[in-house]
Design brief:
The complex is a heterodimer of chains A (197) and B (272).
Chain A (H helix, E strand, L loop, with lengths): L8 H11 L4 H12 L2 H17 L10 H16 L9 H16 L4 E2 L13 H9 L2 H12 L4 H8 L3 H26 L2 E2 L5
Antiparallel strand pairs in A: 1-2
Helix pairs in contact in A: 2-3, 2-4, 3-4, 4-8, 5-9, 6-9, 7-8, 7-9, 8-9
Chain B lengths: L9 H7 L5 H13 L1 H17 L10 H19 L9 H23 L5 H4 L1 H14 L7 E2 L3 H11 L15 E10 L2 E9 L5 E8 L10 E5 L2 E8 L2 E8 L2 E7 L3 H11 L5
Antiparallel strand pairs in B: 1-2, 2-3, 3-4, 4-8, 5-6, 6-7, 7-8
Helix pairs in contact in B: 1-3, 5-7
The chains are: A mainly alpha (197), B alpha+beta (272).
């Protein structure tokens, strides 16, 4: 780890505040989504900010600071904040995808989007559980693109993979999550009638 | 003309994500006019995106968070100013300092992560192991010995430690050794082995000389094949301890607790 004290901490502070701090609201939105708790979200952003500040000398000016910060945020979240949950196996993933394909080719109605708690910007707990259960590679893609609102290219940078891999993982993950919504809709009759086209 | 076997496929996802333009966009729109299945799939994609997307109204940090961030950076600047360290005293010394700096940095972060966890004060062992794990997870733990060979790592440890720790081969369980390090654990030298497992899961094993009765009371104890295990939790992390003679072994990870315990059961016991 590099400490920049000898090279002018004040300058580093100015550069950090100009480059990284404007992106903190975006991190906070995602943190709120990930943790479902305003205090935990604030803690997560602070931890991310602190780690980013300490490593800021390793950030190359002109490169994508947003992707760099999200890499740190996601790492911190997975290390100390994410609720540990058993991940879906390949066969379970495949079963969800089959369920999705069957729905697509069938006549069942479209499920209604779950009501969300606007106060903490929390997603429906059933969707959250399905998201938490996704294998890491797939959860990363959804978290970065659909929750973090990163582009495919930015997500590929964070994940260290090709853009096509992001697309493919995103596609499979969304099918699984949609199938989880379907399951919920079937349990509760929570579906929009007449949606079949 | 669309047919049931000629759907938009990946183009549909690109359309939902606003990644299409020009001819591809026109082609997708034209297809949607004729294809109910693709319209249905587009609606499904939009629904799941809507469900996952953060809601509007959080485009600014709460004032308290802004102030806290500013105070945090001030604190960090003050701390960094008082912790300048000398350089250029040889690569090995520099490397030692780098390890110390990494662990110190992770220590501060870990305190924030677990600031409500009162057990940290009474269990310095798990706190230290958890700091090492956080550093490993954050790619900030330097491994002096990069090797996937347990025997090679054991040789490395034997050259740097006055006891002879085992290095577990967890390959059959899906965990590959990444390397090792002689770390410091509550004032003692520790043989640290780092593993990478399925789905980018991480696992650390540390061994150090000591007795189990030096550890604080565990929230969970169990035994297997005559070996006693102590299980501790730190946030999302689980640490499992057991003794092998005068050496204490600990596995720590954020994987499922039972899966970690199963790994410990599988590896604990006399070397064969």
């Amino acid at each position: 780890m590099t400490y920049a004290t000898a090279r002018g901490g004040a300058d580093r502070r100015v550069r950090f505040e100009a480059t990284a701090l404007p992106l903190m609201p975006a991190l906070h939105k995602t943190a709120l989504r990930l943790t479902r708790d305003p205090q935990l979200a604030a803690d997560l952003v602070q931890d991310t900010c602190l780690r980013a500040y300490r490593a800021f000398d390793q950030f190359t000016p002109g490169t994508n600071c947003r992707a760099w910060l999200f890499t740190i945020l996601y790492s911190v979240f997975n290390t100390g904040y994410r609720r540990t949950q058993r991940e879906l196996t390949g066969m379970q993933m495949a079963a969800f995808e089959v369920d999705y394909e069957n729905w697509l080719g069938g006549s069942d109605a479209m499920p209604v989007a779950p009501v969300q708690d606007a106060a903490v910007d929390a997603m429906d707990p059933r969707v959250q559980r399905a998201l938490d259960a996704l294998p890491e590679a797939f959860r990363s893609a959804v978290t970065l693109v659909d929750i973090g609102e990163l582009s495919y290219e930015e997500a590929a940078t964070v994940m260290g993979c090709a853009v096509g891999t992001v697309r493919s993982r995103l596609s499979r993950a969304r099918k699984v999550l949609f199938a989880a919504l379907l399951s919920y809709a079937r349990e509760t009759g929570y579906a929009r009638l007449g949606a079949r086209t | 003309m669309s047919t049931p076997t000629n759907h938009l496929g990946e183009l549909l996802q690109d359309l939902a994500d606003d990644r299409l333009n020009g001819a591809n966009l026109a082609r997708a729109r034209a297809h949607l006019d004729d294809c109910g299945r693709c319209r249905r799939e587009l609606e499904a994609l939009q629904l799941i995106k809507q469900t996952l997307a953060p809601q509007t109204g959080h485009d600014e940090l709460p004032p308290a968070s802004s102030a806290a961030l500013s105070a945090l950076l001030d604190q960090e600047d003050r701390g960094a100013a008082s912790s300048q360290w000398s350089r250029g005293t040889g690569s090995r010394a520099a490397w030692r300092w780098a390890l110390a700096a990494s662990v110190a940095a992770i220590f501060a972060t870990t305190l924030l992560l677990w600031h409500n966890d009162k057990t940290a004060e009474s269990d310095p062992w798990t706190t230290a192991v958890a700091q090492h794990f956080a550093a490993y997870r954050g790619a900030q733990l330097p491994l002096a010995m990069r090797s996937s060979d347990p025997a090679e790592l054991e040789h490395f440890f034997s050259e740097h430690l006055d006891f002879h720790p085992r290095v577990y081969d967890l390959d059959m369980m899906g965990y590959k050794i990444q390397g090792g390090e002689v770390a410091r654990l509550n004032g003692r030298s520790s043989a640290l082995s780092a593993y990478l497992g399925p789905g980018d899961s991480r696992l650390l094993c540390e061994m150090f000389t000591g007795r189990m009765d030096e550890l604080p009371p565990a929230p969970r104890t169990t035994s297997h094949n005559g070996t006693a295990f102590r299980v501790y939790r730190r946030g999302a992390l689980t640490a499992v301890y057991w003794a092998e003679g005068e050496v204490i072994c600990v596995l720590i990870s954020d994987i499922d607790s039972e899966a970690l315990l199963a790994l410990a059961f599988a590896k604990a016991g006399p070397a064969v």
